[in-house]
Amino acid sequence: xxxxxxxxxxxxxPHLPTFNIASAMLKKKPLLIVEDDPVQQALVERxxxxxxxxxxxxxxxxxxxxxxxxxGHEVALCDLNLPGDLSGVDLLQRLKETPHPPVVVMxxxxxxxxxxxxxxxxxxxxxLIKPVQSQELEEVVARAFARAxxxxxxxxxxxxxxxxxxxxxxxxxxxxxxxxxxxxxFARALFxxxxxSFSQGRGVGxxxxxxxxxxxxxxxxxxxxxxxxxxxxxxITDNQDTVNTMIETFSELQLLVSQDLVLHDVSLGEFHKIVxxxxxxxxxxxxxxxxxVLLSELPPRFSGxxxxxxxxxxxxxxxxxxxxxxKFSDEETTITVLVEYKFTRVLITVLNEPMRNExxxxxxxxxxxRKIVFEPFFRISRVVREQYRTxxxxxxxxxxxxxxxxxxxxxxxTSLKNSAGSEDEAxxxxxxxxxxxx
Length: 438
What we know:
Elements: H1 2-10, H2 18-23, E1 29-34, H3 38-48, E2 53-58, H4 61-71, E3 75-79, H5 88-96, E4 103-108, H6 113-121, E5 126-129, H7 134-170, H8 172-199, H9 204-215, H10 230-258, E6 264-267, H11 268-281, H12 283-286, E7 292-295, E8 306-309, H13 311-327, E9 334-341, E10 345-352, H14 396-406, E11 410-417, E12 428-437
Parallel strand pairs: 1-2, 1-3, 3-4, 4-5, 7-9
Antiparallel strand pairs: 6-8, 9-10, 10-12, 11-12
Helix pairs in contact: 4-5, 9-10, 10-14, 11-13, 13-14
């Protein structure tokens, strides 16, 4: 019974070790513990005392509600059997009725397992059997905070969407004028970025330099051949591979604009698994700058909904967006991928905390660039990040845009306010949001 109930809560993070989630927390997270047994209370408090959580320990449901109103805890550990007028189930229901409910983990005994099933139906995230084991407690609490983070990102995304549509309706003329004013600026930036793309880093620019080096290599005694160092030949091969990848990308773009994709029925549950596997595959890249990638959970009742997908191309699009977030995020930050079912559509959002732009010290993607980032060869940053082994020609987001279009979907670049930071920081998250029809 224990493993069956917990499976649905862990499937979205099957490959993320607990320490990665904990290390992503840059400050202590508020954790509410509701336990009336002094022994169990002390035991849980001791197990969690060395982890990055700010603990609030209370003994009754009313004390818990008072504490939550003051602090707004992200996660609550709640005993099922509490003294007083309110039980653990009552407390769970009260907390779930708040505007920003915490993720609730129930504490129970073996004899109360039937009641646990009821709490799961009412919205409890998970449960622990007393006396709790240290490792299990750490893992469940870490997953609960990961869930709380994803829920918070989803709420912010929803607010941002509402504000976006209101602004779009109210200021369409202003936006059109803005686009016209940016045309000349975009044209100048386009050719500058094309020059940067083809002259810096691996690929065409490096290959041109290497061929020039070959021309200066010494000749054999008979003067018919060049003596070329193995290192130079290895570099030529490596850069030739990059040029081939660029040609392949152009071929894919040509395919996408010249014919329809073959789309297949894919359940939302299968799609969620594809995203989860992709995140695991990208784990080595996430370690380059110590990023944590979190995936939101998918409620089981939505897993059977059907999408029309070419999963191979859609996987390429999501891979590009996640790697793009890694390349342009500050070190040791969290990248969040949200998969949300909205009845007639599915929303996939990739959120990251951007680093400051090297050229003009702006933070993230300026509003005037949020449409033209999908244009070929357009790049805001001129820094080449070769360690990610991706094309640096400003074609990645163009490919993503075409893939989404061929799925009859939409993609937009926007931003979300990140309320987790301090007031004097530029607390804004970059969001790439895909909308696909059901």
